[in-house]
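Following up on my earlier thread - several people asked me to post the actual chain instead of describing it. Fair enough. Here it is, all 132 residues.
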Amino acid sequence: MRRYTAIAALIGAACTTSPTAVRLDQDFELKVGETVSLPGNSARLTFQTVTGDSRCPVDVVCVWAGSAPVVLRLQRATTDTVATVDAVQGKHELVAGGYRIEVRELKPEARAGQPIPAGGYTVVLRASALPL
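Reply from S.P.:
Thanks for posting it. Predicted structure:
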């Protein structure tokens, strides 16, 4: 029985993956629930969810661009920051833990009559280091 437990533990450890590392000052994409690691300071960034999507559909003429708040989580050894950042208007960035995380785009585009499932979003981000 111990032998099977040890083998299962080894297989589980081999299947565990580290977050993908991204480069600073370059766009990268995250799907809902995905995590990446940022260079320096051992930081991890997770795209948690979209809390609402009232963006103007691309196939409609609107008087207001709408809103699409996304929730980002930046974890470091000593801090854990969760912030809501709007992909359309207002605050487009998270500044924390020595980084500026800018929301560049939210995919897919909104279309009239075509709801996007909660896990169907991808956010385009760009991270940069704050000057010391």
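The first strand starts at residue 20 and ends at 21. That should answer part of your original question.
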